[in-house]
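Trk system potassium uptake protein trkA, Thermomicrobium roseum. Tokens?
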Amino acid sequence: MKIVIVGCGRVGAKLASDFAEEGHQVSVVDQRQTAFRRLPPGFRGQLVLGTGIDEDVLRNAGIQQADVFIAVTENDNTNIMAAQIAQVIYRVPKVILRIYDPDRAEIYRELGLTVICPTRTVSEMIEQAVRDELVTKTS
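Tokens:
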């Protein structure tokens, strides 16, 4: 499977490493050369320096052949724009993006994108942990 990942922070590097180790063809895009240091020694994927909303950069990463596109930069707007480019222009079959703003996450989910919102996920987990504690104390 051909996977293009935009953003080589902790999450992007982990995804790239895991998918490459599984034998997938992985391209990682980041605008900072130093970000690629997060990848393990011997990483066999393609590294592309540039921004994930630049079509030339995305083409260099092989977006035309991508089966999966993942946008996990630290910037919601960049992730949204990159995901829309992948979905609308290049018709990548599976587009996944991370968005921190829970309100915006729902909007893009309705547009057919797979949206991961860590803000919502973590807050729900903490709320559930508090509720579980309250149930335990009242039992």
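The first helix runs from residue 10 to 21.
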